[in-house]
Amino acid sequence: MRPADNINELIKKLQLRASAELDKRVHDDISAALTKSEKTKSVQPEPNIWRIIMKSRIIKLAAAAVIVIAVLAGLPFFSGNGSGVALADVLERIEQTQAFMYRMKMTVTGAMMSGMPDGKKEMEGAVTISNEYGMKMEMTMTDADTGQKEMTQQMYILPDKRTAIMIMSEQKKYTRMEFDDDLLARMKRQNNDPREMIKQIMGCEYTELGRSVIDGIDVEGFRTTDPVSYGGAMENVELTLWVDVEKWLPVRTEMDFKMNEQMQMQGVIYDYQWDIQVDVGEFEPVIPEDFTAFPTEGMKMPSMSEEAAVEGLKFFAEIFGQYPKKLNLMNLMQEFSTLKDSENLTDAGLKLKEEMKQMTKDEDDEHIKKVMEMMRQVQSLGMFYMTLVQDKKEPAYYGESVGPDDADKVLMRWKISDNQYRVIFGDLTIKNVPAEELAELEELSPK
Amino acid sequence: MLEDKLLIWKFNRGNRNVLRGIYEKYKDDLVTLAAALLNDVSSAEDVVHEVFVSFIESSRKFRLTGTLKGYLATCVANNARNKNKARRTHRGIALDEASPAQADSNNPEFTAIFGEELRQLSWALGQLPYEQREVLLLHTYNGMKFKAIARQQSVSINTVQGRYRYALDKLRSMLNGEVKK
Fold this sequence. Notes:
The complex is a heterodimer.
Chain A (H helix, E strand, L loop, with lengths): L6 H7 L6 H24 L5 H7 L1 H18 L10 H11 L3 E11 L10 E11 L3 E10 L5 E10 L4 E6 L4 E6 L2 H9 L4 H10 L3 E8 L2 E8 L10 E10 L5 E9 L5 E10 L18 E2 L5 E2 L5 H15 L8 H8 L10 H12 L6 H26 L5 E2 L12 E6 L4 E6 L4 E5 H10 L3
Parallel strand pairs in A: 6-12, 6-13
Antiparallel strand pairs in A: 1-2, 1-11, 2-3, 3-4, 4-5, 5-6, 7-8, 8-9, 9-10, 10-11, 14-15, 15-16, 16-17
Helix pairs in contact in A: 3-4, 4-11, 5-7, 8-11, 9-11
Chain B lengths: L1 H11 L5 H21 L2 H17 L10 H24 L16 H20 L2 H12 L4 H8 L3 H20 L5
């Protein structure tokens, strides 16, 4: 056979062997890289903002609190247009109570943010709500895979003082955060309050599940899968309420939703105790003298105001050079967490990323405060958008196609009256525009 | 393939020892590819060395989307092309006017390694325009799909297929004609 008869077969037969000299060069380089890597490890632990977050029990607590706040904030808002007669009866019964308590369990599966390890966390808590004094919650978080308790915290929401306080006994730390008027108004309306949950279900499309028995009690079920029930902040929402058919009071509430691409949450609220006696002292946090403020005083809860949302958009654009793709709270948090891997950052973003890399002291209050402040700005943006969805203000957001240079394009809008919309443009200027003008503006904007 | 995924998984997690396994597994194929592209064993080894140096440095950000062999072959091809370009520029010849590489495949080293039949092939490969040679070797020797080669060369798939056909025709013609150097 001549060589040309089967060139392909001939080519496949080509085979050189790497020389001993090349072997030595490559293996020496690998050894040098290994040595350098070991030295770097011993001198400076891998400087990574998320490693810091996950290593710091305190920040983990704060991060968990954010989830709880998101869930609490995402629950119940009423629209007042419900027509469910039976649920209205339940609501009337609950509204007669001044204070009540319940227990809750939540299981979160998946990675909280980009780059964090997958895991399964179980959160268990007891909540007491008083119309007069506010809310008190005790919560523990356990790693479901190892059974190891990771943290415990007490959280107080004190509307009259516009303050939320978290006490972390194991760490001997406490955090005091202030709310603004918007958040205060919303907290007064909800706090995982079954009343609001019922109003919420009534305001959404729901189905009646019929009768069942829970813990020997005859119950009737109501279920909604309307995403609006969580302000569009969660996907694949399923919210189920089981009501005692004799007393017309909730017995059990089940929640199941997708928080973002990676995270799934399932939760149950149970063991309701209605019309209990509470004492003001139960709502006065006792902070032992040897506990220190974490990270420092003056922290603020995420706001739900328009100003905070604009600040959040500005902050995001300053770091990434573009706006977030979606404003769903958990997706937003996740997109922000890509900061650690992203190469497409602005100078300010690169500087911030570099600054984060320099953080080597896990419990450095100033650094932790800075991380939490950044998270707060992002959370405020997501929570503001969530309120617009929940309040059915027809919000729309075009962050995927509108950037900071698009001064004449609609970045975000929502309805403020029958014929008026509030519009945030690409350059973050804000204007009220009539519906007809908005239609023209959106026609010009890329979708 | 699964073994490669496992190697990369460990690699991404900072286990640089797996680099030794990756190198040992693919070194001969990569040196052969580089040598066939450059017609120079010494330069070929330099190319493979440089590819591994870059690979070592990329451990944290490397993400395998195709096959590891394909990825390394692409790196070698890119590196070899740069070397080839630099060599020609150094000689003052524009790339598009470049004559086929003056192969050292005529040297005793190639004959000793490949045998006479393969030495002829090696010589003929050296006569092909670089882009055609690259397509032929990446497709035939490394099993890369035309689509992937088109991406790597930033040209259309039709261009790649054309280069492949021209390369085969020319090789066949040269080898049948016994036009030996």
